[in-house]
């Protein structure tokens, strides 16, 4: 198999549909791209998720109406192993067979999403959930990509139309960012590192003054952290729910990664939707912080596996 750089354009749409017509998204709710599964390939729109390990798509008995479903009988390369596992995404538990066929999800939240499945981007040698080798690890091990690097660039839908962003396996597009990337060594199954010292304008929130563990999570629509710390940040932001003070917001939110200061403007940290405003800083279920799509929109992000045994995550200002 020859080496290559693979580009996957990402689309942006809202989280609901009406009569199968996707509504325009001006709030950057979700990003997804198309992959092919099986032989011959069956198309699925998947959310590329740096916060999870496995690839799953709906099986033939997936309960969502009018959903794409994987037809195993139509694939020449399908092999069933019959193992059942549970995959957790946030507060939800996904029951699926260890290959790629998801059979059900609790509640309705996942069924309401515009994408079909999730493509976990872990670089582990095997999933801690299913025991399968993650797709990105397979791509690296089998020399499919030119370089052991992937990068994500996200653009606001209001600026870009259907061209909402791009994920590149095997390289970096210089047109997607300005300046040089700041890299930090990551560790553990989720490629975590530390952030320090949150400021709102010139006010020190005292959040992460001694460092907080964080991951970059392309599957999250928010920047999440422990509730007792998030409340301190939002107390300083003080955005009105009716957006009446949005145009008066001038303070940037800043924090440091690898001794470099990163700043978010109100356009980055305030979500505006149907005349309502709210902060993108939201509660997490654990002490682990998650830098979701609001951060990735602001900073082009690279995951670099080129040095054996070391993963580096890099950030540069997005264009």
UniProtKB/TrEMBL annotation:
User: Gene3D superfamilies attached here?
Assistant: Acid Proteases
Tagged with keyword Transport: no
Per UniProt, which keywords does this protein have?
Answer: Aspartyl protease, Hydrolase, Protease
Residue stretches making up the Peptidase A1 domain:
31-316
Top-level taxon in the UniProt lineage? Eukaryota
InterPro entries, per database record? Aspartic_peptidase_A1, Aspartic_peptidase_AS, PEPTIDASE_A1, Peptidase_aspartic_dom_sf
Q: Which PANTHER family match?
A: BETA-SITE APP-CLEAVING ENZYME, ISOFORM A-RELATED, EUKARYOTIC ASPARTYL PROTEASE FAMILY PROTEIN
What is the similarity comment for this entry?
Answer: Belongs to the peptidase A1 family.
The name this protein goes by in its record: Peptidase A1 domain-containing protein
Species lineage: Eukaryota, Viridiplantae, Streptophyta, Embryophyta, Tracheophyta
């Amino acid at each position: 198999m020859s080496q290559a750089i693979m580009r996957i354009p990402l689309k942006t749409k809202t989280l609901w549909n009406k009569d199968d017509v996707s509504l325009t998204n001006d709030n950057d709710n979700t990003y997804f791209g198309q992959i092919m599964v099986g032989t011959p390939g069956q198309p699925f729109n998947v959310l590329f998720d740096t916060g999870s390990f496995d690839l799953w798509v709906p099986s033939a008995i997936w309960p969502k109406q009018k959903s794409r479903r994987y037809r195993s009988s139509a694939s020449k390369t399908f092999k069933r192993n019959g193992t059942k596992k549970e995959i957790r995404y946030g507060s939800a538990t996904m029951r699926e067979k260890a290959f790629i066929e998801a059979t059900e999800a609790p509640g309705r939240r996942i069924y309401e999403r515009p994408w079909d499945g999730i493509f976990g981007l872990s670089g582990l040698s095997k999933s801690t959930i299913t025991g399968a080798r993650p797709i990105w690890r397979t791509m690296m091990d089998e020399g499919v990509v030119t370089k052991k690097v992937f990068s994500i660039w996200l653009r606001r839908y209001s600026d870009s139309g259907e061209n909402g962003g791009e994920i590149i396996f095997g390289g970096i597009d210089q047109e997607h960012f300005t300046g040089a990337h700041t890299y930090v060594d990551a560790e553990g199954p989720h490629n975590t590192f530390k952030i320090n010292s949150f400021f709102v304008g010139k006010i020190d929130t005292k959040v992460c003054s001694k460092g907080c563990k964080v991951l970059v999570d392309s599957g999250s629509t928010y920047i999440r952290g422990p509730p007792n710390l998030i409340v301190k940040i939002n107390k300083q932001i003080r955005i009105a729910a009716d957006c009446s003070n949005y145009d008066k917001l001038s303070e940037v939110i800043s924090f440091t990664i690898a001794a470099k200061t990163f700043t978010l403007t109100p356009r980055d940290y305030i979500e505006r939707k149907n005349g309502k405003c709210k902060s993108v800083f939201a509660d997490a279920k654990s002490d682990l912080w998650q830098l979701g799509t609001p951060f990735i929109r602001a900073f082009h992000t690279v995951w670099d596996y080129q040095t054996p045994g070391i993963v580096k995550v890099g950030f540069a200002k997005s264009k």
